[in-house]
Amino acid sequence: QVQLVESGGGLVQPGGSLRLSCAASGSIFRILDMGWYRQAPGKQRELVAATTSGDKTNYADSVKGRFTISRDNAQNTVYLQMNSLKPEDTAVYYCNVRTTVATHWGQGTQVIVSS
Questions:
Q1: 97, 3 Cβ separation under 8 angstroms
Q2: DSSP code of residue 90
Q3: Where are the alpha helices (DSSP H) in 54-114?
Q4: Please, what's the b/e burial string for 84-99 (b: 16 or more CB within 10 A of its CB; e: otherwise)?
C-alpha cells in the first residue's frame, strides 16, 4: 500500500501564495512522475503541474509563471508553490504519483482564493 499525505491548502486572498506538499510513504517502488491536478466545482479534473524522474516539468498554461513544482526524491515528496493566486485557482488539489507498478492519488486539499 502507498499513502499520499497532502498538506498546505486553505483560504487565501487574491494575489497571495500557498505551498502544497505531498509526501508518499508505504510500499513505494521506483517513483517516475509526480504531479498535481485540480478539480473545480462542476469541472473536470485537470493537470496543474508535473515533474518527471528526470526533473522535466510541465505546467498548465493557466499557471505558467505563477506556480512552481519541485520534488525531494530522498523524502518522496512533491511540492507546489503557488504565487499570485487568482479566484479561478479555487479547486480541490490532488497529488498524483506514478511508480513503475501503479498510479496513486492523494485525498485532495482544498484551495480557496477569495477576498
A1: no
A2: -
A3: none
A4: ebeeebbbbbbbbbbb
CB atoms within 10 A of CB 3: 13
What cell does 45 get?
A: 479534473
DSSP letter at 16 equals: -
Q: Concatenate the DSSP letters of all residues of 56-69 into one string.
A: -EEE-TTTTTTEEE
For residue 74, report the phi and psi dihedrals to the nearest 5 degrees.
Answer: -65, -30
Q: Per-residue pLDDT averaged across 66-86, rounded? A: 96
Q: Give per-residue pLDDT as tens, 23-59.
A: 999 877 788 999 999 999 999 999 999 999 888 999 9
Q: 60 — phi, psi (to 5°)? A: -65, 145
